[in-house]
UniProtKB/TrEMBL annotation:
Pathway: Purine metabolism; purine nucleoside salvage. GO terms for molecular function: purine-nucleoside phosphorylase activity. Belongs to the PNP/MTAP phosphorylase family. Pfam families: PNP_UDP_1. The purine nucleoside phosphorylases catalyze the phosphorolytic breakdown of the N-glycosidic bond in the beta-(deoxy)ribonucleoside molecules, with the formation of the corresponding free purine bases and pentose-1-phosphate. One of its GO terms (biological process) is nucleoside metabolic process. It comes from Flavobacterium cellulosilyticum. InterPro entries: Nucleoside_phosphorylase_d, Nucleoside_phosphorylase_sf, Pur_Nuc_Pase_Ino/Guo-sp, Purine_phosphorylase. This is Purine nucleoside phosphorylase. It comes from the Bacteria. Its EC number is 2.4.2.1. Keywords: Glycosyltransferase, Transferase. One of its GO terms (cellular component) is cytoplasm.
Length: 270
């Protein structure tokens, strides 16, 4: 990891019109509709950004967008990177470091996840209050990490309390079901076995996915206020487990997404 690389990428984006964003937004699997609500002022494909990884997942479009949403300047990652694509944890989180260098103070993250807590139903939203890192590494585990911030980053409250309180109130006002829970991040790309779902439940997970946690760790390392919401796209009941249909998961994410967009937009207003 190299500070010069981040500077080079940031300079390129500023030249492309990415000027002083307030908020960064990461859009997860099947969650691209938010961009239809943004007054877009600049956009660039990941493939054209120096030092950026390129998304290899067909339903992650791979674009960085800049514009206005609810009178806030936002920079949006439409598509993210995953360990299961063969990237390192440092590569996955490189864009978060660039967003911070561009000027964001707040990071809103979305993902599609499976519901381990069987009181939660597919199509519901879950506010991530805490997480369990089962990805076998840390995006902060590199030699010169202390050039970028405190090596031993505190994770006692990785998801911002004020943002969480605000979005809970917004959900109540809008009559949107917003569960609260613990997100477990696994490597993937294979889905979990019945025994793995049982294990996840035992260790305290309410939902499981293959992203988000590395981004949250780095955001905390950079001192950003973080909020993350999962769209629950399947129910992971080990006693009644059906084969997973990925296209169905994408479709369900798309159906539930308007609720998430509504919450994020109202949060930005506040």
């Amino acid at each position: 990891m190299n500070i010069e690389t981040i500077k080079e990428t940031t300079k390129f984006l500023i030249q492309k019109g990415f000027h002083f964003p307030d908020v960064g937004i990461v859009l997860g699997t099947g969650l691209g509709q938010l961009v239809n609500h943004i007054k877009i002022e600049a956009e660039v494909d990941y493939a054209d950004i120096p030092n950026f990884p390129v998304s290899t997942v067909e339903f992650h479009s791979g674009k960085l967008l800049f514009g206005t949403l609810e009178n806030k300047k936002v920079v949006v990652m439409q598509g993210r990177f995953h360990l299961y694509e063969g990237y390192s944890l440092q590569e996955i989180t490189f864009p978060i470091r660039v967003l911070k260098a561009l000027g964001i103070q707040t990071l809103l993250i979305s993902n599609a996840a499976g519901a381990i807590n069987l009181n939660f139903k597919k199509g519901d939203l879950m506010l991530i209050e805490d997480h369990i890192n089962l990805q076998g590494g840390s995006p902060l585990a590199f030699k010169n990490v202390s050039e970028f911030g405190e090596r031993f980053t505190d994770m006692s409250e990785p998801y911002d309390l004020n943002l969480r309180h605000s979005i809970i109130e917004i959900a109540k006002a809008q009559n949107i079901i917003l569960h609260k829970g613990v997100y477990a991040a696994v490597v993937g790309p294979q889905l979990e076995t019945k025994a793995e779902y049982r294990y996840l439940k035992i260790i305290g997970a309410d939902a499981v996915g293959m992203s988000t946690v590395p981004e949250v760790i780095v955001a905390n390392h950079l001192g950003l206020a973080v909020l993350a919401v999962s769209v629950l796209t399947d129910e992971c009941n080990p006693d009644d487990l059906k084969p997973v249909n990925i296209s169905e998961i994408i479709a369900l994410a798309g159906q539930a997404e308007p609720k998430m967009i509504s919450l994020f937009k109202e949060l930005l207003k506040e």
